[in-house]
Design brief:
The protein has 358 residues and is an alpha/beta fold. Helices cover 31% and strands 21% of the residues. It contains 11 helices and 14 strands. The strands form 3 sheets. A 7-stranded parallel sheet has the order 8-9-7-6-12-13-14, with helices on both faces. Helix 4 links the parallel strand 4 and strand 5. It is elongated and about 60 Å long. The N and C termini lie far apart (54 Å).
Length: 358
């Protein structure tokens, strides 16, 4: 049985979360805290399989707690409980950068906190976070501004020079738990003159994908945006799927563009990377570079299997020790689909080697 610490200043929310946790025989609420100071003492003196952390609390809020853990170099498997407002989304991304592994959206009223949807989401995320063998490194610093054009960090690892790459290609990335932070170790390292467009499915609600795109755009030479219906794909641009819709890539008038559909959740998620990959089956790209990164579950595997029947692929899977959760990459590797198994810090380099620059 896994021991959980619940940190929330709302007595009602603590009760709801604790009831959900205790309803699953795999988990036990070992301790509760009403603010960050209480939680800090507990985390520094005890060991927990996971910590569920609220953001807005008196005395010490969730972000301040993460910052204090960072100062003390204390690691823990932490998931946030966050609202879906624009400000809440930005705060959640700050928390993920400070070491939180994932988050669950807190509904606006107590009744919605007792729904099966909220219960399932909370338990699924808690399972992934508590199962992770790699405690998030809460004291790792991430870039806070655009990487300068030269020298580029991706070229600090050159094993060979970038070849002249012929043919039309596209990069399609899938990520989930741990993905927002991992993407900050990939997208900003891609050169601004990348020869192809990049499309990303990251499992997040709608407000969060917009904030993620904005943050990655400030760090990257490439232009990063939340993909809008009808966006035409252009080289040197990164398109992040909007939360709550399934992203497809379609051809119209000789150009590839974004088209959203509203089928039910697949693999328990929406957007689902399987739809993105399968939408490329009838494309005219000479090769699709599929990148499957950290995340729970198996999203991406079936889509790549179906895509491989029609297209030439190069599949890159994130190496296990660098994943917050080794679920999606493991599924791809176990299916025999991976052409490369690459540590997180080298993924951008391998993408560039495979698609080239203009």
């Amino acid at each position: 049985m896994k021991n959980i610490l619940v940190v929330d200043d709302s007595a009602l929310m603590r009760r709801v979360i604790c009831d959900i946790i205790e309803s699953d025989e795999r988990f036990h609420v070992q301790d509760k805290a009403t603010n960050g100071l209480e939680a800090l003492d507990l985390i520094c003196s005890k060991s927990y399989d996971a910590v569920i952390l609220d953001v807005n609390m008196p005395r010490m809020n969730g972000l301040e707690l993460l910052q204090e853990l960072q100062k003390r170099k204390v690691s823990a498997n932490i998931m946030m409980v966050s609202t879906d407002t624009m400000e809440g989304a930005k705060t959640t991304l700050d928390a993920l950068e400070l070491g939180a592994m994932d988050f669950v959206h807190k509904p606006g009223n107590a009744m919605d906190c007792r729904t099966e949807d909220f219960k399932d989401r909370l338990l699924n995320v808690l399972t992934a976070v508590s199962d992770s063998k790699m405690k998030m490194n809460v004291f790792q610093k991430l870039p806070t501004s655009k990487i300068p054009a030269a020298p580029r960090k991706v070229m600090d690892i050159p094993r060979r020079s970038i070849p002249v790459v012929s043919g039309s290609k596209i990069v399609a990335i899938a990520s989930s738990t741990g993905g927002p932070k991992a993407l900050q170790s990939v997208v900003p390292k891609l050169p601004g003159n990348l020869k192809v467009p990049v499309v990303i499915v990251q499992h997040m609600p709608a407000a969060f994908t917009a904030s993620l795109a904005e943050r990655l755009d400030t760090l990257s030479e490439l232009h990063v945006k939340e993909a809008a219906e009808g966006d035409v794909l252009e080289a040197g641009n990164v398109y992040i799927a909007k939360g709550g819709k399934h992203l497809n890539i379609v051809m119209s008038s000789g150009k590839y563009s974004i088209h959203y559909t509203d089928e039910p959740n697949r693999e328990g998620v929406k957007p689902c990377a399987n739809y993105m990959y399968e939408s490329l089956c009838d494309s005219k790209f000479d090769e699709v570079v599929c990148v499957v990164m950290t995340g729970m579950g198996a999203d991406g595997t079936k889509g790549i299997i179906n895509l491989k029947k029609k297209k030439k692929l190069h599949v890159i899977a994130q190496e296990s020790s660098t994943c917050a959760v080794y679920g999606m990459p493991r599924s791809v590797v176990n299916a025999g689909l991976a052409d490369q198994i690459v540590p997180l810090e080298q993924i951008a380099h391998e993408i560039t080697m495979n698609v080239g620059v203009r």
